[in-house]
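Collaborator request log, item 7. Partner lab (contact: R.S.) asked for a structural prediction of Ig-like domain-containing protein to inform their binding assays.
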Amino acid sequence: NEHGSIYHTYTVTVEAAPYWIKMPVSQIYGPGENVRLDCEVDGKPKPKVSWSINGTPLKDVMPDSRRKIQSGALIFSEVQPNDTAVIQCQAHNKHGSILANAYILVVWLPAEILTPDGIEYAVVENQIVILHCKTFGAPRPKVQWFMEDMNPALKDERIFI
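Returned to partner:
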């Protein structure tokens, strides 16, 4: 004002409860597959993350060499049906906590070709044709293409998958 001025500096620190950047996702796996569950969170102060298997904290679960935490993700190598479980990721700081459940279902399902047999494709000579082969199974089926004479299709340089 006309009588002078005064200044004062304030420091404001903004903090936040934990929030998700990447949540673990439920999925079906086949025996022998590898599983990676991401649990990426942020907040201020930086949240602490903990994992549980079927409600038991990971530190209290029997150790397993096929299970490890790497870069914040819980990784299972070569899962088997007895690895089927509910996995929880929890993050907390002084402002709150968040929890996510991911279901790991390990099942063996025989390979199936879902694309109907006998589909005919019309193609113009020297043009590209795309043949479809939709499959389902656990573990995920490996698809191989063969020529009419039963030679592998990939031996022909014009064919690629």
